[in-house]
Amino acid sequence: MTDNLLMILPELVLTIGALVLMLVAAWGGQASTRAVSWTAVAVLAGAAISLGGPATSGATAFDGLYRADAFAGFAKMLIYGATAVSIIIAPGFFARTSGDDLRPEYPVLMLLSAVGMGMMVSAGDMLSLYVGLELQSLAAYVLASFMRRDTRSAEAGLKYFVLGALASGILLYGISLVYGFSGSTGFDQIAAAFAAERSTGLTVGLVFVFAGLAFKISAVPFHMWTPDVYEGAPTPVTTFFASAPKVAAVALAVRVAIEAMGPATVDWRQIVIFASLASIFFGAVAAIGQTNVKRLLAYSSINNIGFALIGLGAGTPEGAAAVLSYMAVYVVMTLGSFLVVLQMRGSNGQPIETIASLSGLSRTRPALAAALAMFMFSLAGIPPLLGFWPKLAVFWAATNAGLFGFAVAGAVGSVVGAYYYLKIIKTMYFDAPANEIAKGGGSAVEYALIGLAALFISPLGYLLIAPLAPVTAAAAGSLF
């Protein structure tokens, strides 16, 4: 039992921290918000530190329900980092937004969501997969509607809840089919059933499971909730949705595909290729006509998930490592982009989200415009910025797996998608200043985070490839 508890130490740290902070919030009330927020960040740091040792030893806990391996450890580091940033940037946003003050429940919900995401990426059984996914989702539904007096936020929470419940039902039905035809919910036993002569029911179950997971990663055709939820939710919450849960859902999809359904690669690869190319092209085309920057970044998220799925479609250790590299760089680019969106405020402090308001930003706030331009170029995969490298990695993995046409189609989609990123840069640098965005007002912490993200995705970021590549390779190798 002690060994099992040591393997789930990151989740224990987060759970105990969340429960204690919940009590502090209940007694301390609104005045405890800042203290609870920074303590929650410290709890996330403690969980990250506890990832060493048994938590990434490669063993399984609780009779295979939980896997403590390097793959889960890498994903959790990204999840905890993105969650911490989403907590840090919230106080400034809510302080500047009239109507709703930040309450201490916000960081507690973030911690509980992080517990669920940790369970998702470490799942070794369909039951632990579903419990972790629902824990993450229930916290996310509340976070989406956190600004109670804002009708857009309430609408976003309701849409997310209704569509999320539908997707959970689809996933649960798929799990029941897989269990019924394989006789087990454990990934190893399911893989053995797929390796044997399998029935049509098992294949149908596979389709439903992947459909449920596609909703969580916002892959086409289960993307419909993303633009509305991203636009309506408070910007720090949208920042969270676009980063940490994306990593958890993609890592979960990779683990299920490789460990539970590895023998059925030919079957699920068709689903992944369709979802990947549909996400790439739909995300690129649908973003072109957007006028709201958060909706544009929502379609950008759909587009980028399509590129990550190219690595999964390869079905090889190289492809899984490319997915991890892609998500690592994607998280930094996304966090940087939304940190810039947080600085888009009028003279009264209210958020401004229209792309037209960015007109002439290079002349009124040149440093902010330069940072956003770097993030846009990097999201488009334009060298020499670091966003080019993970795209090349997933294309290379698909090519080495014999999927040359898949890689070429993805590359063509990358060219199409570059248009709407370049549109933002054109608006900032070539249009007449709109003077809608007020100067200054952001906190030193926000500016520091923008600077660090810009430095990471700059050409200097290529220096990180040498230490990052063996880490992602080892993490991916733990799945095979």
UniProtKB/TrEMBL annotation:
InterPro entries found in the cross-reference section: NADH-Q_OxRdtase_suN/2 (IPR010096), ND/Mrp_TM (IPR001750)
EC top class, as a word: translocase
Keyword annotations from UniProtKB, A to Z: Cell membrane, Membrane, NAD, Oxidoreductase, Quinone, Translocase, Transmembrane, Transmembrane helix, Transport, Ubiquinone
Residue span, NADH:quinone oxidoreductase/Mrp antiporter transmembrane domain: 123-416
Membrane topology recorded in Swiss-Prot or TrEMBL: Multi-pass membrane protein
Keyword Lipid metabolism carried by entry: no
EC numbers on record: 7.1.1.-
GO molecular function, one term: oxidoreductase activity
Pfam families xrefs: Proton_antipo_M (PF00361)
Membrane-crossing segments per the record: 6-28, 35-53, 73-94, 106-123, 160-182, 202-225, 237-258, 270-289, 320-342, 367-389, 401-422, 443-465
Recorded catalytic activity of this chain's protein: a quinone + NADH + 5 H(+)(in) = a quinol + NAD(+) + 4 H(+)(out)
Location(s), subcellular: Cell membrane; Endomembrane system; Membrane
Sequence similarity: Belongs to the complex I subunit 2 family.
Quaternary state and interactors: NDH-1 is composed of 14 different subunits. Subunits NuoA, H, J, K, L, M, N constitute the membrane sector of the complex.
HAMAP family: NDH1_NuoN_1
Function according to Swiss-Prot or TrEMBL: NDH-1 shuttles electrons from NADH, via FMN and iron-sulfur (Fe-S) centers, to quinones in the respiratory chain. The immediate electron acceptor for the enzyme in this species is believed to be ubiquinone. Couples the redox reaction to proton translocation (for every two electrons transferred, four hydrogen ions are translocated across the cytoplasmic membrane), and thus conserves the redox energy in a proton gradient.
Protein name: NADH-quinone oxidoreductase subunit N
